[in-house]
Amino acid sequence: MTLQEEITRRRTFAIISHPDAGKTTLTEKLLLFGGAIHVAGAVKSNKIKKGATSDFMEIERQRGISVATSVMGFEYNGVKINILDTPGHEDFAEDTYRTLTAVDSVIIVIDGAKGVEQQTRRLMEVCRMRKTPVMVFINKLDRPCKDPFDLLDEVERELRIKVRPLAFPISNGPTFKGVYNIYAHGLSLFTSDERQTATASTVEIRDLAAPELDAHVGERYARQLREDSELIEGVYDPFDRDAYLAGDLAPVFFGSAINNFGVRELLECFIDIAPSPRPSQTETRRVEPAEEKMTGFVFKIHANMDPNHRDRIAFLKICSGRFERNRNYLHVRSGKQLKFSSPTAFMAEKKSVIDEAYPGDIVGLHDTGTFKIGDTFTEGEKLKFTGIPSFAPEQFRYIENADPLKFKQLAKGVDQLMDEGVAQLFTSQLNGRRIIGTVGALQFEVIQYRLEHEYGAKCRWEPISIYKACWIESDDAGQLADFKRAASQLELDNATAAYESAVADVAVGEADLTQAQMTLGYTSVQSPIAGYISERNADIGTLVGPSGKSLLATVVKSDTVRVDFSMTALDYLRSKARNVNLGHRDSTRKWDPYITVTLADGSEYPYRGLVDFADPQVDPETGTFSVRAEMPNPDHILLPGQFTKVKLLLDVREDAVVVPSKAIVIEKGGAYIYVVRPDSIVEKRFVETGPEWGNNIVVERGLVRGEDIVVEGYHKLQHGMKVEPVAPRRDEEAEKQQ
After folding, report:
1. Staple partner for 112: which of 145, 215, 234, 531, CB 3.0–4.6 Å?
2. In whole angstroms, what is the distance from residue 150 CA to residue 116 CA?
3. Beta strands per DSSP E along 197-277
4. Would strands 312-320 and 295-303 be described as parallel, antiparallel, or unpaired?
5. Which helix (H) or strand (E) holds 7?
């Protein structure tokens, strides 16, 4: 394949958005439909255990946010796609801005409920400045969202770019049906609940007038889709690819990335209309991708990518020519010829050695501390690519070693993390202490976490009153030297004044301590009751004040103790329905107002407590209300604050029908159970359930004692099916409860 053919078939783009709009989830689904993975993971999910591929760092998986750019490459329909998933939080914006210099187009993800947000506007400004082609994916249509036409107007107004929808949703929220592909004039609807694989069954509808549309989405939504489609064609101009490539028009897609809706439509349209690698600007000339000689620049460095090998990877964007393994290239900044024996391609944290790469590809180069962000590689020409941003830090803290035995690990970790460009290291000329400067405060937490978990070094932060670091330049060397001397003298004067103030504060504190010790000698403490006294540790002089109201300790009388516990509103309603009322005896049924207590070692407390109070008001946050009982405590076994297990008899059931809880199936229509009739025919029967007891549950109505029921394997059954029932496996725990 020729160089031009390799260039034409490549698509390199970044996915950007405000935090929590769903860009990492969209990245995961693009990898799924592209065949790079077989099962999609999730950023945060109780059902999906697999994590997102692009969130490969442990801190990203724990917090559910992206803190560093991930690079993923794969082939799809003969097209080589390179995805760069960027952080959304503004504290990591510097990494995102640098990534935008290495891509040829951008997909902006917008939350359909929140619309355009602050960070999205900022990122769009960078794209507009660089004339980067932009696509918009409006996500989370499976949740209640704004009207699609209102969202289109908002995108056009807030991002200041013309829009043209190439896909349109069928409703949203709980009634969301799918997405109509305007670009390809087709509709793909899922016919199963499977969403995590690309092979989920679908039905394809090519004609909006087809009756199959009404059958699958309903007459109401089919009619609305036809009306919306006509309105779009009447209001918006036909899609103009040249305007899109010039950065003047944004194609808009709708969907739900977590449920796969609209993702395939976005991917197939993207590879059709998105630009192949574009020219790159240097300080001296413009570099065209089709040039024969290789050029490229480093836009990102990731330290300790593999903790087992302590490796550091430089991300090289190929701008022109063909990159070859084991070939010498000029490192322009150092002037040295370097050869790379194991350049790699990326799938997040996974790497594979490659023999060649072409414009648009992102290549990983093993770095021993030689490279810096912005470094250029060529075949001999001295070039320097422009547009790579560098921000002055605005947050500063002293970094201190929390473990003296790990000094070398801390120093190595700090040096390597600083090389990533997300933070800068300064050293105070006054006291020699090291200062870390970052763009955002969240970076300090990330640095501290990575130092501990990747390098085994703990650190702590101390505040410092610095606002911003600036580069100061002057054509007059003498004037610049005078400024440096004045700045150093001012810092020394401030430090001296702070030291003298601290000495004065210590003297005042010592005088207060002497006075407090003198006062303590005239103090006597008496308790009005006899009981157990608690211990309270504090510095001398901090408890007793002139007002006489300072708390010294707590004395507890424990001959009789009160036991507080909570009762659910559901138990209360059931007990009331059965004429069991707290604090009142019923003449027709017996109710014991006494409680028993089980201690932490499992033994029963020998005395019973009497319920003497029930709060008449339910806590709306927990759905419970407080109940209190008074218990004798002659042996002082119960202590204040002790946790125990309380038993309170609410009701006695005679001849109750009890079944294992796992035999009950809950659905929207209610609870049902599969009953096996004497002729071995399965009957699906709705029942009314009562209170639970251990692993069992009471059936109030719908089941007769002695009938056979299905306990396991009911998901394979249908009503009216003939079966061969077998006895269930022995459940020893259930037998113990019975």
Report:
1. 145
2. 11
3. 202-205, 249-254
4. antiparallel
5. helix 3-8
* Phi, psi (rounded to 5 degrees) for 494: -65, -40
Q: Give the whole-angstrom CA distance, residue 8 versus residue 279.
A: 13
d(CA 726, CA 729): 9
Instruction: Taking residues 576-605, report their average pLDDT.
Output: 65
Task: Identify whether the C-beta of residue 642 lies closer than 8 Å to the C-beta of residue 565.
Answer: no
Render pLDDT for 117-164 as a digit per residue (tens, 0 to 9). Answer: 988 998 899 899 889 999 999 999 989 999 999 999 999 999 999 999
Portion of the chain with pLDDT greater than 90, in percent: 26
pLDDT in tens, 217-276: 888 988 998 999 999 999 999 999 999 999 999 999 998 888 888 888 899 999 999 999
Lookup: tokens for 414: 């700090």
Single-letter amino acid code for the residue at 42: A
Whether the pLDDT of residue 51 is over 50: the answer is: no
Q: 681 has which bridge partners?
A: 722
DSSP-derived secondary structure for 641-684 = T---EEEE-----SS-EEEEGGG-EEETTEEEEEEE-TTSBEEE
Between 155 and 573, whose confidence is greater? 155
Q: Is the dihedral of CA 28, 33, 34, 40 positive or negative?
A: positive
Q: Is the pLDDT of residue 358 over 80?
A: yes
pLDDT greater than 60 at residue 196:
no
Cβ atoms of residues 94 and 445 within 8 Å: no
d(CA 131, CA 76): 26
Residue 304 tokens read as 């300790």
Tens of pLDDT, residue by residue over 506-539, are 988 888 888 888 887 877 777 777 777 777 666 5
Are 162 and 156 in contact, with CB atoms under 8 Å apart? yes
Lowest mean pLDDT of 18-27, 230-239, 304-313, 363-372, name the range: 304-313
The answer to whether the beta carbons of residues 295 and 383 sit under 8 Å apart is yes
Cα 668 from Cα 654, distance rounded (Å): 31
Sorted by sequence, the CB contacts under 8 Å of residue 220 that are 6+ apart come out as none
φ/ψ (deg, to 5) at 670:
135, -165
* Beta carbons within 8 Å of 210's beta carbon, 6+ residues apart: none
Measured distance CA(538)–CA(466) in Å, rounded:
35
pLDDT at 44: 42
343 neighbors 325 (Cβ within 8 angstroms): yes
> For residues 735 and 738, what is the distance between their CA atoms, to the nearest angstrom?
5
Q: Tokens 């290789």 sit at which residue?
A: 294
Angle between helices 23-33 and 263-273 (to 10 degrees): 80
- How many angstroms from the chain centroid is the CA of residue 351? 24
pLDDT at 581 over 70: no
Residue 186 three-state SS: strand
Count of CA atoms in the C-beta half-sphere (13 A) of 601: 5
CA distance linking residue 628 with residue 614, whole number of Å: 6
At residue 588, does pLDDT exceed 50?
Answer: no
- Nearest by Cα to 138 from 157, 111, 178, 118: 111
**CA nearest 386: which of 284, 288, 283, 277?**
283
Closest C-alpha among 312, 437, 430, 300 to residue 375: 300
Q: What are the respective helix, strand and coil percentages of the chain, to the nearest 5?
A: 25, 30, 45
Q: Confirm if 298 and 374 have CB atoms less than 8 A apart.
A: yes
Provide the token pair at 545: 């004040």
Distances (CA, A) of 206 to 46, 181, 187: 36, 9, 6
Closest CA to 69 of 45, 103, 109, 42: 103
Q: Two tokens at 373?
A: 């962000």
Q: What are phi and psi of 644, to 5 degrees?
A: -135, 170
State the average pLDDT over residues 483-488.
67
Encoded tokens for 28: 């995961």
For the chain, the straight-line distance linking the first and the last C-alpha, in angstroms and rounded, comes to 75
The pTM (predicted TM-score) of the whole model is 0.61
